[in-house]
């Protein structure tokens, strides 16, 4: 089955700096790659996603890149702010008309220092 | 946007009792529901997948007789932890998809349920 590896496990940056989180996946059939932000005691919130027919997607300060050949994708957060501090998870799934179960990476705890 | 309401948000129960967690899709049809378990400082681990009207498919290592999943309608799925023990204490999260609508790909997550077994 699918396996998703995420690095780093913790990341500390100064406010205003950029943060990059990287993930690799094992199943070449995976075609949907979302990123989630999870705050303590809450469910994950989708922040951006990308499909395998696209190499890059951007939404204001957040961007995601995908390299299908290498089977890795990355989250880029620019101009970080203290409220960006949270746990971030990458995930992968085979998006089809069937269930398309979502497999998560291990998570990255991002700390943005004021 | 799509919303999944999960209840209760937290529950404390005695060892040996059963606890039911509900997830409702409020504005879409949850044709597929996923149940995850998350231990402190760890990732979300998929427990099972269920399609409306069908039996759930459990991931390897998850006891189907202990974690009963019912997905009898397009808007409601329940997870019942039977004969709960302290090691079942965890954060349980549901996620729903509308796989029956063309172009609808998103996974909508509930807010999670903190289960503490004493």
Structure characterization notes:
The complex is a heterodimer of chains A (114) and B (118). Chain A has 114 residues and is an all-beta fold. Helices cover 0% and strands 54% of the residues of chain A. Chain A contains no helices and eleven strands. Chain A has strands at residues 4-7, 10-14, 19-25, 32-38, 45-51, 56-59, 62-67, 72-77, 86-92, 103-104, 108-113. In chain A, the strands form two sheets. In chain A, strands 2, 4, 5, 9, 10 and 11 form a six-stranded mixed β-sheet that branches. Chain A has a five-stranded antiparallel β-sheet with strand order 1-3-8-7-6, with no helix packed on it. The radius of gyration of chain A is 14 Å and the shape is globular. Chain B is an all-beta fold and 118 residues long. Chain B is built from no helices and eleven strands. Chain B has strands at residues 4-7, 10-13, 19-25, 32-38, 45-51, 57-58, 67-70, 76-81, 90-97, 108-109, 113-117. In chain B, strands 2, 4, 5, 6, 9, 10 and 11 form a seven-stranded mixed β-sheet that branches. Chain B is globular and about 40 Å long. The mean pLDDT of chain B is 91. Classes of the chains: A mainly beta (114), B mainly beta (118). At the A-B interface, β4 and β10 of A face β5 and β9 of B.
């Amino acid at each position: 089955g699918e396996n998703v590896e995420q690095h780093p496990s913790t990341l500390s940056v100064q406010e205003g700096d950029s943060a990059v989180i990287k993930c690799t996946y094992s199943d070449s059939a995976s075609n949907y790659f979302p990123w989630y932000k999870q705050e303590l005691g809450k469910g994950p919130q989708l922040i951006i996603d990308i499909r395998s027919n696209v190499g890059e997607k951007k939404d204001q300060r957040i961007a995601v890149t995908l390299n299908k050949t290498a089977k890795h994708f990355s989250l880029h957060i620019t101009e970080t702010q203290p409220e960006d501090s949270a746990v971030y998870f990458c995930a992968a799934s085979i998006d089809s008309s069937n269930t398309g179960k979502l497999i998560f990476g291990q998570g990255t705890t991002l700390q943005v220092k004021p | 946007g799509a919303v999944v309401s999960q209840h209760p948000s937290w529950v404390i129960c005695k060892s040996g009792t059963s606890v039911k967690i509900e997830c409702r899709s409020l504005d879409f049809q949850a044709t597929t529901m996923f149940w995850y378990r998350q231990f402190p400082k760890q990732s979300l681990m998929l427990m099972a997948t269920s399609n409306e009207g069908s039996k759930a498919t459990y991931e390897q290592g998850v006891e189907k007789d202990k974690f009963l999943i019912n997905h009898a309608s397009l808007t409601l799925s329940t997870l019942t932890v039977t004969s709960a023990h302290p090691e079942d204490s965890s954060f349980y999260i549901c996620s729903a998809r509308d796989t029956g609508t063309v172009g609808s790909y998103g996974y909508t997550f509930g807010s999670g349920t903190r289960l503490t077994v004493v």
